[in-house]
Automatic annotation (TrEMBL):
Keywords: Membrane, Transmembrane, Transmembrane helix. This is ABC transporter permease. The keyword Transmembrane applies. PANTHER family: INTEGRAL MEMBRANE PROTEIN, SLR1174 PROTEIN-RELATED.
């Protein structure tokens, strides 16, 4: 095909694991390449995140300066500044908003083509989303963090395991986010138009995930309730807290372990909802 590689990974019964890894890797790479084509959108998005990073950082630093407590929420000024810039970078990595691909395909009937592929729909969306997140880590996470480091005093981790633990936490945040977004979009199987649930998700995710302010600013009983009863803090709050070492080492690992539990639960729930939806799916026009 004139220089284009049109080969498709073949799934062999004799090498299921190897071929599954190959297919998953190919789908992830396709997600990376897809978002790498939108160069101007990437630059514009990074610039927007940086502008809002300045606004949020000055607001939270003003809150810290005017607080009677020396460390409001358990954060000092450096930790708060780092929290803000990490959140601005992770906003696109975990993709809190703007993903309606599944709902759009359900509405148009194109989702029926997904069911003919040799990959489960949940995996078919998860793998490219990990590729998208890898692209966002390079071009949407690092630039805001670098700008924040130039203009503010940011917190440097003191524990050797914090950075590797942060990488695991971000990976789990992306997986959990995809599970939540899949469930919200899957309401289109029953509602046909999922704009209502998507709007509710957009309004609630930023608050419950700790984007606008750290959940540690809330009363302890309410913050713990959000952390244990909902998966939202694991999307932004937990990775940021891991990096700024807000908690003792044991608590750091416990928070990431809770992320892992929610990630598994959300993926399992997404697979269950997809299975139930397939039993009632009727494509428009036949």
């Amino acid at each position: 095909m004139d220089g284009l590689d049109a080969r498709v990974p073949e799934i062999s019964p004799g090498r299921p694991f190897r071929d599954w890894v190959t297919t998953f890797g190919a789908l992830s790479w396709s997600g990376f390449r897809r978002f790498a084509t939108y160069r101007q959108a990437t630059i514009a998005g990074s610039f927007t995140n940086i502008v809002f990073g300045f606004l949020r950082c000055y607001v939270l630093l003003a809150v810290a300066a005017g607080a009677t407590d020396a460390k409001p929420g358990g954060y000092d000024a450096e930790q708060l500044a780092t929290y803000v810039w990490v959140g601005q970078g992770l906003l696109t990595v975990v993709a809190l908003w703007g993903w309606t691909e599944l709902a759009d395909r359900i509405r148009s009937g194109d989702v029926t083509a997904d069911l003919l592929r040799p990959v489960h729909p949940v995996i078919g969306y998860l793998a490219p989303d990990l590729g998208r997140a890898a692209h966002a880590m390079i071009f949407r996470f690092l630039p805001p963090l670098a700008v924040g480091a130039i203009f503010f005093d940011l917190y440097a981790p003191e524990r050797w395991f914090t950075v590797p633990l942060l990488a695991v936490s971000i990976l789990l945040a992306v997986v959990g986010s995809l599970g939540l977004r899949f469930l919200v979009n899957a309401t289109a199987y029953w509602l046909h138009d999922a704009r209502g649930p998507i709007t509710l998700w957009t309004l609630s995710a930023g608050i419950l995930a700790g984007l606008y302010f750290p959940l540690r600013f809330l009363p302890d009983w309410l913050a713990v309730t959000f952390w244990v009863a909902t998966p939202f803090p694991g999307l932004l709050q937990t990775p940021a807290d891991v990096l700024v070492e807000r908690d003792p080492p044991l608590m750091q690992f416990a928070l990431v372990a809770l992320q892992a539990v929610w990630a598994v639960v959300l993926l399992a729930l997404a697979a269950y909802v997809q299975r139930r939806a397939e039993k009632r799916l009727v494509a428009q026009g036949g």
